[in-house]
Design goal:
60% of the residues lie in helices and 9% in strands. By secondary structure, it is of the alpha+beta class. The chain has 4 domains: 32 residues, no CATH class; 186 residues, no CATH class; 49 residues; 146 residues, Heat Shock Protein 90, CATH 3.30.565.10. The strands form 2 sheets. Strands 2-4-5-7-6 form a 5-stranded mixed sheet. It has a two-stranded antiparallel sheet with strand order 1-3. Strand 6 and strand 7 form a beta hairpin. Helix 7 runs parallel beside helix 10, helix 8 runs antiparallel to helix 10 and helix 13 runs parallel beside helix 14. It starts with 6 loop residues before the first helix and ends in a 26-residue tail after the last strand.
């Protein structure tokens, strides 16, 4: 049984894929009516779009016969009034078929009658020439394109009745030899037999088309089922991964608090120099683990839709100044110059989360910029949006790797020569910026050419500055802080 398909549809798909779905009883009784039906086309299964297209072409073909037969009749010396009446009948059939196009089988049957009538009229106008009868064979083959039994059988019956009835009433308009004049029904049967033989060839092609279409539909059904199953599996895996990240981050964070308290207690217990170094290493690794867990929690919130923002009109310059101040000591230690350019720019932002983005971009810039280099934060606008750019003179990125930067757990630099992170920072930055309704991108001309990160955000009016606090009411503890 095919996964993702109802049992009945799966059974049909399996049969069609094998290319032979003959019933068991029919196989045991090859000469029964049921056995015969398995060899015949089913009919009526042509897709609607294909049926409309074929019907339109057949209708145009019948319509094209009207002026052609009119000209042929006049060329044969027939009275123009007589020819006009005969072709007018075919024209009326074309109009009726076009008017009933919304009823596919009726319209197709009318078009088939019109086409066979063209064969009959051509034979009549030619004086019963044998060669004119070839038109009947071509017409029957064309009518088989409908892949529908009703117009097909109507066309065959028309041929037999036409040759018999008209052969009796006016044999010279159907035949051009004495035997047929004497025995019109016999020759009608002979002509009908040959038409039936041509029909058999058409039915073989018709049957093969149905089998090919059935196999294609079965393959499509199997493919849809496989795609549905893959999508469902992917959703289950993604849900499991998100839950695992969330549980792991929470469960690992819980013991960090008592460990951190123990480290703080050790610092106050009079450590010697060697012990102080050990505690410092422990403290640094606790910070690293806390950052990893924080990243995992952010990823879990972003991917589960639980990442909440509180956006307010914010001054990007003030946010940038805070981040630059916090990275000032690290930049000085590494010999990298920090610079801020541009006027204050207003944006709708969650100050805490956007500060996280700026911190991450500055951390990366310092990580990959050597001593003597420069990291610049530029403020401005882009396309009507507020823009914050972090530009460094560091090692740069190959243009082919830029698309990988914002993928989770992605590392585009050699971890052996540069500090290795979790590979989640820029992925989280992208999620935070997009939650703001903004964009983030990276640009670099290549190795050694530095890197530029550009963040755009919805614009907003700059927030009003805080009113100055009167000197008499200032807290004495804040008296020495520069403003």
């Amino acid at each position: 049984m095919t996964p993702g398909l109802p049992p009945a549809e799966a059974a049909r798909a399996s049969h069609a894929a094998d290319g032979h779905a003959a019933p068991t009883r029919a196989a045991q009784e090859p000469f029964s009516l049921a056995g015969l039906r398995t060899w015949l086309p089913t009919g009526g299964g042509l897709p609607e779009a294909a049926l409309r297209t074929r019907h339109r072409y057949i209708l145009v073909l019948v319509a094209a016969h009207v002026p052609a037969l009119f000209a042929y009749g006049l060329w044969q010396g027939r009275p123009w009034t007589h020819v006009t009446l005969e072709v007018a009948l075919i024209a009326a059939i074309v109009v009726a078929a076009a008017a009933t196009a919304h009823r596919a089988r009726l319209s197709g049957t009318l078009a088939s009658i019109g086409l066979i009538s063209c064969s009959a009229l051509l034979t009549h106008l030619s004086g019963g020439y044998i060669e004119a009868h070839f038109h009947f064979f071509v017409s029957v083959i064309i009518i088989s394109l409908y892949e529908d039994w009703v117009p097909f059988l109507v066309a065959i019956a028309y041929v037999v009745l036409h040759h018999g009835v008209v052969g009796v009433l006016d044999p010279r308009s159907v035949y051009n030899h004495a035997d047929a004049y004497a025995q019109p029904w016999v020759w009608a049967g002979i002509h009908g037999g040959f038409v039936l033989a041509a029909s058999a060839a058409s039915m073989v092609n018709w049957k093969l088309n149905e089998q090919a279409r059935s196999q294609a539909e079965a393959a499509q059904a199997l493919e849809r089922a496989a795609q549905t199953e893959l999508a469902e599996n992917a959703q289950r895996v993604e849900a499991f991964r998100t839950n695992l990240l969330n549980i792991a981050a929470h469960e690992l964070r819980t013991p960090l608090t008592p460990i951190r308290l123990q480290v703080d207690l050790l610092r106050t217990s009079g450590l010697n120099q060697r012990q102080e170094r050990v505690v410092t290493v422990l403290d640094r690794n606790l910070d690293r683990l806390a950052n990893v867990l924080s990243d995992l929690l952010d990823v879990s919130r972003l991917e589960s839709g639980r990442f909440q923002l509180q956006t307010l009109p914010s001054d990007l310059r003030a946010l940038a100044e805070e981040s630059l101040a916090s990275f000032g000591p690290l930049a000085a230690e590494r010999g990298v110059a920090l610079e801020l350019t541009g006027s204050p720019v207003g944006a709708m932002a969650d100050a805490v989360r956007l500060g996280q983005v700026v911190d991450n971009l500055l951390s990366n810039a310092l990580k990959f910029t050597s001593a003597g280099g420069r990291v610049t934060v530029e403020l401005g606008t882009e396309g009507g949006h507020a823009a914050l750019r972090v530009r460094d003179s560091g090692i740069g990125i190959e243009p082919a790797d830029l698309g990988k930067l914002f993928q989770p757990f992605s590392q585009v630099h050699d971890a052996r020569s540069h500090p290795k992170g979790t590979g989640l920072g820029l992925y989280i930055c992208k999620g935070i910026v997009e939650q703001h309704g903004g964009t983030i991108r990276a640009e670099s001309a290549g190795r050694g050419q530095g890197t530029l990160f550009v963040v755009t955000l919805p614009p907003a009016a700059l927030p009003a500055p805080l009113a100055p606090v009167p000197a008499a009411s200032q807290d004495p503890a804040l008296a020495g802080i520069a403003r």
